[in-house]
Design brief:
8 helices, single chain, mainly alpha, 49% helix, 3 domains
């Protein structure tokens, strides 16, 4: 640092004896018409590894943001409907925001894109899987199913009956079933799974009921011995 150089310095102010000093400050030279990126603003802090500093990354990312053209990936009507920030602005604002409002708007836009892309990938994989994979349609013997359900020491809830109907409809066609049965603890998911296994067995096939932990496996076995 030569005498006469103008610096912008940011850090923790402390005392050394009777003098005020800045402890391990960030600094950068102030050049005409240059925008500060390390001090005097909201500064991003990046995860780093040996030999790489946030300051080094900040400089490189600043160059990228200025020199690369970011193309919009969403239709304008989607952006307007959800009041989203433009993608190019969001990328610039997440790294070098002017205020916290910009940070939040940029984060919302990038989170929206991430969730949308993840969902679209999932839908695409599901469509490909269902169109390229053939399942075995099962015969749904309603009287047998009703007999099985009536043998239970309790009545199924409306939600359980609906789940059984939808699963039965899925098993009756050649498109592979891709379904998540969701419910609170104790809501009766196991018996719905058992009915699906019963349909499978009635068609001469084997089935498998998996539990994520030994405790749940033992609990399921105990419930089965007592009639679910």
């Amino acid at each position: 640092m030569r005498v006469g150089t103008t610096l912008s310095v940011s850090g923790k102010v402390g005392r050394f004896g009777n003098q005020i000093q800045m402890e391990s400050p960030e600094y950068e030279m102030v050049k005409p018409n240059a925008v500060l990126i390390h001090t005097g603003r909201l500064v991003p802090v990046y995860s780093t590894t040996a030999g790489i500093t946030s300051k080094w990354l900040r400089s490189r990312i600043n160059w990228l943001v200025k020199n690369f053209i970011v193309e919009e990936i969403l239709p304008l009507e989607i952006i307007s409907k959800h009041n989203l920030m433009a993608l190019a602005t969001a990328i610039k604002s997440i790294h070098f925001p002017q205020n916290l409002v910009q940070v939040e708007a940029a984060r919302n836009r990038l989170a929206f894109d991430e969730l949308l892309i993840t969902n679209l990938k999932s839908q695409l994989r599901r469509k490909i899987w269902q169109t390229q994979t053939q399942g075995i349609p099962l015969k749904i013997n309603q009287p047998k199913i009703a007999q099985f359900i009536n043998s239970l020491p309790f009545k199924l809830t409306n939600a359980q009956n609906k789940a059984v109907e939808e699963i039965s409809a899925d098993l009756a066609i050649s498109t592979p079933m891709n379904r998540l049965l969701e419910g609170d603890v104790g809501s009766g998911k196991t018996v719905v799974a058992a009915i699906a296994l019963f349909i499978n067995a009635e068609n001469g096939f084997t089935g498998c009921l998996m539990a994520p932990t030994q405790l749940l496996a033992e609990q399921t076995l105990s419930d089965n011995e007592t009639g679910f």
